[in-house]
Amino acid sequence: TPLIGSDQLIKNGKKVSAFVPNDGCLNFVDENDEVLISGFGRKGKAKGDIPGVRFKVVKVSGVGLLALFREKKEKPRS
C-alpha cells in the first residue's frame, strides 16, 4: 500500500495529501517538519492506484528524501 502524508502549504494554508516514495521513507518525516513537495502524476490528476493524491515529498528539512533513504546524508537536528 502506498504511504501518504498530509501537508499544509505555507503559501496559502491549504492542506494537501502527498505520496512518500520508497519503503520506510515515512520514518524520516516527523510531525512538524518542513517538506518540499512536487507534482506527481498526470497534469494535476492522480497517478495510478492512488486516487486524489497529486503531490510527492521530495525534501525533508532541506535534505533530499532519497539521500536520507540511502543514508548518504542525515537530517539536521533542530
TrEMBL record:
Keywords: Ribonucleoprotein, Ribosomal protein. It comes from the Eukaryota. One of its GO terms (biological process) is translation. GO terms for cellular component: ribonucleoprotein complex; ribosome. The keyword Ribosomal protein applies. Belongs to the universal ribosomal protein uS12 family. It holds the Pfam family Ribosom_S12_S23. This is 40S ribosomal protein S23. GO terms for molecular function: structural constituent of ribosome. The keyword Protease does not apply.
